[in-house]
Amino acid sequence: MEDIILNKLNYPILTITTFLPMVGALIILFLRNDRLIRWVALATTIAAFIVSLPIYQHFDKTTFKMQFVEMHQWIPAFNINYSFGVDGISILFIILSTLLSILSVLVSWKSIQKKVKGFFIALLITEASMIGIFVSMDLFLFYLFWETMLIPMFLMIGIWGGQNRVYAAIKFVLFTLAGSVFMLVGMIVLYYAGGKTFDILALSKVNYPVTLQIWLFIAFLAAFAVKVPMFPVHTWLPDAHTEAPTAGSVILAGILLKMGGYGFLRFSLPMFPEASKMFLIPMIALSITAIIYGAYVTLMQKDLKRLIAYSSVSHMGFVTLGIFTLNATGLEGGILQMINHGVVTGALFMCIGIIYERTHTRVIADYGGLARAVPLFVIFFSIFTLAASGFPGMNSFMGEFLILSGAFKATLTGGAISIWGVVLGVIYMFWLYYRVVCKDVNPVIEHHLYDIDAREIVALIPLVILIFFIGVQPEALLSYMHVSVQHLVERVNGVGGGGMEVLNTVKAVGEALK
Amino acid sequence: MNIQLSAMMIMPEIIMTVLALAIVVVDLFVKRKDIVALLSLITAGVVAYATLNGSSGEAFSAMYIADGYSVFFKLVFIISLILTILISVKYIEIEEINLGEYYTLMLFATLGMMVMASAGDIISLYIGLELMALSLYTLAGFMTHNTKSNEAALKYFLLGAFASALLLYGTSLIYGITGTTNLKAIAAYLSVHGVAGNPALMFSLILFIAAFSFKIAAVPFHMWAPDVYEGAPTSVTAFMSVGPKAAGFAAMGRVFLIAFGSLQLNWAAILIPVAILTMAVGNVMALTQTNIKRMLAYSSVAHAGYALMGIIAGGSEGVAGMMNYLMIYAFMNMGAFAVVIMLNTKESKGDQITDYIGLAKSHPFASILMLIFMFSLTGIPPTAGFIGKFYIFMAVVKAGYAWFAAVAVIFSVISAYFYLRIVMLMYMMEPTAELSLSTSTGTGLALLIAALAVISIGVLPSGVISLARAAIAGF
Question: Would you list the domain boundaries of chain B?
């Protein structure tokens, strides 16, 4: 019990944050009016966001311990507890989930016209399971949320998706399921090896035999690699992203992909430290492959959404690279970059959704000259393009910088090769920008274009603010994770460099920028 | 052991027999067959009450055992009986097989299963098995005007008789070796006399495995299942896919874990490939089916494979896992069949998978229930199906077969495809034709019970798990 701080607020804040969207879904179930349903969904997501804010206010940054812990017996037969808690690694993902859910409701306002009720119920259940994943302190509970999320996502892609939606939906479920079932077996093995408990903290303290660690690392890798997705199991992602409705793409890119990275941080590294070190080279090699290969494939895409989807493969390669540098700089960069990727890619998918609503085409060749036709839209699109290509002063720059400095510390060659990924990132984003925004207005879409309205601006503004805020003040986010990451690094490497080291790096960059 | 005490222990069976016979008589004077259905439901309720409050112990020189294990299985049978009766009322009216004997045969089949679950002797086991099987052969061929139904009955009868013969052959060998047919006496003999290498014993073991494999539809004795499931009246199919299968497992648990408990290494070596093949064939063959009843037949073959894993794992956890799995399977499979039966109307048989295209548009409520059952059968949380698989895997890993669990989950992923295909057809395709459902109070009630059970066990599994654990305390 020395590793947890029980919830000191006089209400179960994590339970409320997690299940509030479920309550909203339940209310929507009994509504008939589409307009009302949209408003209830929006109100629910905003309420969940507001409810989650005190977590940040009361969070103690000076400890790695789990905070706001709630613990109740659930299935005593297997020593399974209903236990929620938050530490420096998971805390940022909660706000990311609640924020992106609001934006997802906003972007679905007009674009979802059929089966409105079902859509928003699915969206809210997805939100609840996403938050649940990040606050679970019990492996069984974690797995429950992890798998539950498949159901609404499957329906969201399959019912409200594009042309090829059914194929994409089934591919998504089969890939994800194939990965996670091995984690299921792995976690049962872990249960017996770790002293008949599913408690994540207890399991993270046991030193397992190395052979067992290797097997379990592989079992958990199967689940996380598919979710991230790492090369070569990334092939579901372009299909799912492309076919999903805008809100689905935002959630997929913004949060679902982060579940894999989070899994590495929460399970693979602290539970199997020896195996993590043994798999270091293959994992870094796979990450770099994803960065470079993903970037090259992105370059040749002809479809807007597919392009962003493949760029996700490349960006997530940076994340796994950061995680498997196994030093504090890289790890914090990895976490920060997950948030950044959620914000930027979410924003780009929203932009594509907005413009698709008008033109009904995603073929890049149909576009051109948006700067003349929809200048307001282009302002936002330019900001997001710059952010995605890692422009200094914006959020991705900070994340990529930390990851690369971590990578150089871990392996010089690896760092050197992944730099090329950054260059490619600039190339594909700017080339996309050139084709879509510059030149003359393409006659194919000329008559469909009209500029963005207030609702869409409201949906995009928070992301713009976040991009600049994180870019200029990364410490505001990083300060939450220093202690937890340091604890993690110590668990993996024995004693290692911690938060101070990152702070110095960040300060140095700040000086240089000035 | 005096006869009165023994009679007390078989009180549920006595009540069942008397009431079932009474219903046969009442049926002669009643025109409306839904009254017979109601009487059967009441009978099931009374028997359930008697089972739960019955005295426990060994009756009739240990021919018969009333313990927590048998009570749990009897509950599973009665649950599937009640759900079957509920979905039958409308269906047999549509199919014009609305005869009172339908319900009495169901009751007798359940009686046979109850005897099987309580059998402490291979002979009493055999009597229960035959009572169950003979009632089911008749029920499978109940649609006398339908050639497919006739074919199903005949096929089931011939192959079932063959399986019974194997069981008797195995019994005779065992009797020859040990001089007894009592399960505990066999166990005692085998543990005292080290006869593990005896070829006759091994041969009888194989015969038992073959006979039980037939009853639970495990590969390679599953061939009858798709044809019989497709041809039999849908309500009977629903019943057959749950009750008799559970009864087979109940008997199997006693025979293998008590009588042959000391030979676990030997039979596990045979049952492991059987279980893997059962999951493989069931799940892979289900992929290509176009008829939903056939698909569910192969799916039930596959589920037998998962439940078998519990027996292979052995020990109290394995058995409890198997029991828990069968209880959950009863609810989710019955639920799925309840939806299937609703598609059967006067105009259309509705047993093609393509009949589900666009169902969500016209019948959102039926579709959401089917969705829940399909996800549960796949084993995705928060449904009960996941808890069932989870418990089984826990037991298997505990017994040291982690690789076995890893193999099983691969087939679970394969099964996701054909279960989710139904969801896909219902939700992601536009309807091609006007669909109508045959709804009734009974079917609605059955669906409600099944769906509530699937969700509540999925979220709060503690109750069922502790029930199963308590049931094996005296096993």
Answer: 3-474
Cβ atoms of residues A159 and A118 within 8 Å = yes
Identify the residue whose tokens are 């041809």: B231
- Crossing angle of the two packed helices A165-193 and B384-398, in degrees rounded to 10: 40
Q: Mean pLDDT in chain B? A: 90
Residues of chain B whose pLDDT is less than 70? 1, 194-196, 474-475
Of B169, B175, B172, the closest CA to residue B207 belongs to B169
Q: Which of A74, A159, A188 sits opposite B394 (nearest CB)?
A: A188
User: What rounded mean pLDDT belongs to chain A?
Assistant: 87
User: Long-range pairs for A370-375 at CB < 8 Å and ≥24 separation?
Assistant: A370/A436, A370/A437, A370/A441, A370/A449, A371/A437, A371/A438, A372/A440, A372/A441, A373/A441, A373/A446, A373/A449, A374/A449, A374/A450, A374/A451, A374/A452, A375/A451
Name the DSSP letter for residue B65. Answer: E
Residue A368 has, within 13 A of its CA and on its CB side, a CA count of 8
Q: Tokens 């052959």 belong to which residue?
A: B169
Tokens linked to A91: 């805390």
**Any idea how long chain B is?**
475
Q: Look at A165 and B462 and tell me if their CB atoms are within 8 Å.
A: no
B382 touches chain A (CB under 8 A): yes
Stretch A351-371: mean pLDDT, rounded? 85
Q: Report whether pLDDT(A514) > 60.
A: no
For A9-42, give one letter per residue: b (16+ CB within 10 A) or e: eeeebbbebbbbbbebbebbeebeeeeebbebbb
The mean per-residue pLDDT over the stretch A128-148 comes to 92
Q: Do residues A44 and A23 lie in contact, with contact meaning Cβ atoms separated by under 8 Å?
A: yes
Exposure letters B42-73 (e unless 16+ CB within 10 A, then b):
ebbeebbebbeebeebbbbebbbbbbbbbbbb
Q: Give A53-110 as a DSSP string.
A: HHHHHH--TT--SEEEEEEEEEEGGGTEEEEEEE-TTTHHHHHHHHHHHHHHHHHHHH
Cβ–Cβ of A75/B465 closer than 8 Å? yes
Structure confidence at residue A497 (pLDDT): 46
pLDDT at A506 over 80: no
Interhelix angle A165-193/A236-243, nearest 10 degrees: 130
Name the residue among B381, B394, B397 with its Cα closest to residue B457.
B381
Find out whether A83 and A138 touch, Cβ atoms under 8 Å: yes
ipTM reported for the complex, 2 dp: 0.90
How high is the pLDDT of residue B77?
Answer: 95
Cα–Cα distance between B76 and B70 in angstroms, integer? 10
3-state secondary structure of B360: helix
Single out the residue of B86, B327, B305 nearest to residue B217, CA to CA: B305
Residues of chain A positioned with their CB less than 8 A from the CB of B469: 77
Buried b (16+ CB within 10 A) or exposed e, B78-108: bbbbbbbbbbbbbbbeebebbebbbbbbbbb
In this complex, do B420 and A173 lie within 8 Å of one another by their Cβ atoms?
yes
A169: Cα separation from own chain's centroid: 19
Q: A303 forms bridges with which residues in the sheet?
A: A363
